[in-house]
């Protein structure tokens, strides 16, 4: 790969690491990216095997488990890891590290174990606890620094928590609510996070990564695109009249496409670290256009939500997980063959999964599902193999974090 070699920093000699001061707990991206990638490698094949062949030994593994764990397991870990790392840069203050970070990672891991093996009532308590604890940690840092600009992230994590509570309440029969609606609401909250954060970082990454490129950022246009996405999401969750939802979704898709066009995606083809973010973000307008078609019964809502999850969510996750890990472990921001393969595999998984949701033939659907699962798993397995050592070891430049 076109990356600088891994070597110990020169100077003070070898540091003896205990559990509490191990590099893995140096900054939020380290444990959460690693755990998320390992979980992605395990969880999707588990679901596909259950879906296609059945696993009597694991009765908890079903459709609701799969939907829940992709958002409140995988996506939540990556979001928290990214925000902990970003908040360190935004505020100059340390976000959870050491034993505090290890405890939060342990709580997340306990939630995954509980959702697989423990009674749903007990599992719900353990699982629900993670996001509020993480949100409180972020809130404290932002509040202490006076950083109000990013405080909205605490609110969005709060909305995710509400969706998680609604999901568990519906599963346990405590409330009359469709758990699928709760999961769709959670997905749309994640899309909102992507829309806001993506609009802030992708143009900057593009101008820095592709010399001579000047992405057009129009704050008014950005606000319109994000507002439309939020309004469309609310209209979908509230099951407002289909023509209204379709019109809003089409408007959202168009607004997001105009937004992306200003970022000059055609200029990024030679820099995979940039084009993976641009291409993955482009799945957001695709997802909303499919949502419009779904509201009019032309395609299934599975096609729309898998475009938003496998396409935009997983694509942006793998793009940020590689970029963040390279930059924050002291390595060059340069993608090699391994990164390129990861990016292409995730895009293949997205295309295959959306096709599986659209095609009426059961045999072709199952084939597309299998292809999507193999591509997804291979991408995240490659991440674990290549980036696991980066995340587990100290920065090569000797800095903290």
Detail the topology: elements first, then pairings:
Elements: H1 29-53, H2 63-91, H3 98-117, H4 120-145, H5 152-171, H6 179-209, H7 219-237, H8 242-262, H9 272-295, H10 301-328, H11 337-358, H12 362-392
Helix pairs in contact: 1-2, 1-12, 2-3, 2-4, 2-6, 2-10, 3-4, 4-5, 5-6, 6-7, 6-9, 6-10, 7-8, 8-9, 9-10, 9-11, 10-11, 10-12, 11-12
- Summed over residues and divided by their number, the pLDDT gives a mean of 93
Distance between the termini: 24 Å
**Number of helical segments with 4 or more residues:** 12
Beta-strand level of the residues, as a percent range? under 5%
How does the major sheet shape up?
none
Q: Rg from C-alpha positions?
A: 21 Å
Helix content: over 70%
Structural class by sheet pairing and helices = mainly alpha
String of helices and strands: HHHHHHHHHHHH
Total strand count, please?
Answer: 0
Shape descriptor reads: globular
Low-confidence stretches are 1-13
State the oligomer.
single chain
